[in-house]
Amino acid sequence: MADPEARIYDAAAVKKLALHVSAVSLAVNIVLSLLKLAAGIVASSGAMVSDAVHSASDVFSTLMVMFGVSMSAKAEDADHPYGHERMECVTALLLALLLFATGLGIGVSGVKNVSLALAGKLAAPGMLALIAAALSIAVKEWMFHYTKRAAKRTNSGALMADAWHHRSDALSSIGSFVGVLGARLGWPVLDPVAALIICLFILKVAYDIAMDAFDKMVDHACAPEVVARIRELIFATHGVETLDDLKTRRFGNKSYVDIEIGVDPTLSVVAAHDIAEDLHHRIEQNLPEVKHCMVHINPNLAGHPEVLGAEQEKQQ
User: Fold this and answer.
1) Domains of the chain in sequence order
2) Could you tell me which of 200, 204, 55 has the C-alpha nearest to residue 140?
3) What is the pTM of this model?
4) Residue 196 in contact with residue 107, Cβ under 8 Å?
5) Residue 302: enclosing H or E segment and its boundaries?
6) Which is nearest to 205 in space by CA: 95, 107, 110?
7) Cβ neighbours of residue 38 under 8 Å, at least 6 residues apart?
8) Residue 29 vs residues 5, 23, 88, 98: alpha-carbon distances, Å
9) Tens-digit pLDDT profile for residues 185-225
């Protein structure tokens, strides 16, 4: 039986899982937004109406994720010979901006409501708003874990951004719950104070998502443990005498590797090519996240003094 937590690297499988998760997310967000809007209107809760608008923003973010995942899964073409993986990074950046705007909106609303609460102008909402907030917390927290698990399996920055958008909605609903409960117990100021705390958390998450997307777009090196594993595979390859250079770069949810190795300078071109080919396949088979590995062969003259001496004599 396949491991339900195992990482997926096949582009078609990644796209299928990501679109399935996004479709579920889309349906849940639409239903939840309508329920919270109705509860906010019936219970006269401004906080719940704002929370409904926040949930509605998740519908837009999920549509963006579906677009980004579909585009990034497209095969290489003449205009994009390296593929379209970075489209997912663009989507993650847009979602980070949306998340930032959401957090900022919650913060601005919280500051205004603090003033209203201190002035005694915040009315206590009805019990229906409290029930809707509790339901939203449970549903959105489940959506966060559901989407985050899929994001880890597909190494999708866009899905991870969408997962944290679900978490921001859950936190927003916690703020609404605390605020509604506090207002009903006689402490209306708890609502805006909770909103301000949630605002700071959401802004931090937006920053982390944006930085991760930037790293994938500016050819940031692979993680140290990945580089260490590549070095192990290089020196485990028969015929490799030296590692002259190693460069890695992240490209969306994939990676590229460029290697220069030194081999016996007396080998034939065919034999040296076989070593490079062996290393090339070894890297790509053991590290599925590597989309392509380029291996360049250098003659290891320093390791063969007799050949180096002969070459120096020819130059004189």
Assistant:
1) 11-216 (1.20.1510.10), 224-315 (3.30.70.1350)
2) 55
3) 0.58
4) yes
5) none
6) 95
7) none
8) 25, 10, 21, 16
9) 777 676 667 667 777 777 887 888 788 788 777 778 888 99
